[in-house]
Amino acid sequence: MKAVWTVGGILGDKVASVDFVADLGFDTIVMGNASPEVRAAAQKRSVQIVTTIFPFADDGFKRNYSHALQKVRDYEYQIGGILAEQPWEQLTAGSYQWHPVSLTRSGMCFGHEETKVAIRARIDKALSWADGIALDGFGFMNYYACFCDRCEGIRAEMKTAEPDKPDLDILVEMSTKTLVDVHQMVYEYAKSIKFDAIVTDHVWPPFRPDEYIGHQFKLDYCTQTISWFYPPEWRLERVEFEAAEMKRLEDQSINRFVPFIGIYETGGHVRSAERLVKELEIALKYGEGSVVVSRLTTLQTQPQLAAAVKSMLK
Ligand SMILES: [Zn+2]
Fold it and tell me: Are strands 2-5 and 198-202 parallel, antiparallel or unpaired?
């Protein structure tokens, strides 16, 4: 899979952008939705369209199933309120962190039946037209656990069964199982309605207790970050180290590891073409020819980066 992930949209004519993507050497485009014209253009160029599935609650879900929303600790809610007021740049690149302290989205808690029903409905809708699905946001809003009544109750039962086990071990065990289980559910459901559907993801938000958890997720392709959109920019040695570690952990009976490279065109965060070529070399080596590059708007506005990608994917 050589995919471009269109975070932040597509500039200009969408049909023309399919040709642009195909000309660069990509065989897959990850996008929110596609008109029949875009789908026809993609088919003509043998580009697969994979559409994103998010586990965030819509207004109806929030209204009807508030018990099934992820709950974070009180202080994390309070931090979330402060974060929502700050300029995005200060929370991320400007303070040298890829991810803010806590996410402020309303994530559905994966263990609840209502959540499973909502996710399945999103998959139904997606696979009615797309070649596959890409999971995005399948993690915890605080990056490690949910504290809803159901999750707290399960941990209390686990503690009763194994009183000597440290609370933190119980928390990590349960959170890990929650994420592994929801990927398994999604994979099986997607394949049951379309056996040849592509099921992929981007591991985000990261899971703090184990940032390499991706190798445990049942998927066709598990896309994991080896280079992020903006600072802190890892040295190339670390980029290669991370790719090698993700490859080492890969179990191909569970998924194929695909390196994810984020690129950006604003805020002075445009990467050099020389650097991108080196990152792509690492990605293609450890991804055995597979890579995901995001985002498309950067390639559309930075011809030197588009040329770099084209030279590496051909
Ligand atoms: Zn929960």
Answer: unpaired
Beta-ladder partners of 198: 132
Residue 195: CB partners within 8 Å, gap ≥ 6?
none
Ligand 1 centroid from CA 70, angstroms: 5
92 C-alpha vs ligand 1 centroid, how far in Å? 27
Q: How many helices (H) and strands (E) does the chain have?
A: 12, 8
CA distance 192 to 155: 31
Distance 57 CA to ligand 1 centre (A): 13
Choice between 105 and 290, residue whose per-residue pLDDT is larger? 290
How many angstroms is it from 194 CA to the middle of ligand 1?
29
DSSP-based three-state secondary structure for 146: coil
Residue spans of the domains in the chain: they are: 1-53+220-314, 55-119+140-196
For ligand 1, a single-atom ion, the residues with CB < 5 A are 109, 146, 148, 151
Residue 255, Cβ density class (10 Å: 0-12 exposed, 13-18 middle, ≥19 buried)? buried
Q: Distance, CA 200 to ligand 1 centroid (Å)?
A: 24
Task: Say how many Å lie between the first and final Cα of the chain, rounded.
Answer: 13
**pLDDT at residue number 104:** 87
Distance 292 CA to ligand 1 centre (A): 31
pLDDT (0 to 100) of residue 84: 87
Question: What is the CA(294)–ligand 1 centre distance, in A?
Answer: 30
Is residue 120 packed enough to be buried (19+ CB in 10 Å), middle (13-18) or exposed (0-12)? middle
Neighbours of 296 (CB within 10 A): 26
Non-local (6+) Cβ contacts of 265 within 8 A are: 297, 298, 301, 302
Please determine, for residue 48, whether its predicted confidence score (pLDDT) is greater than 90.
Answer: yes
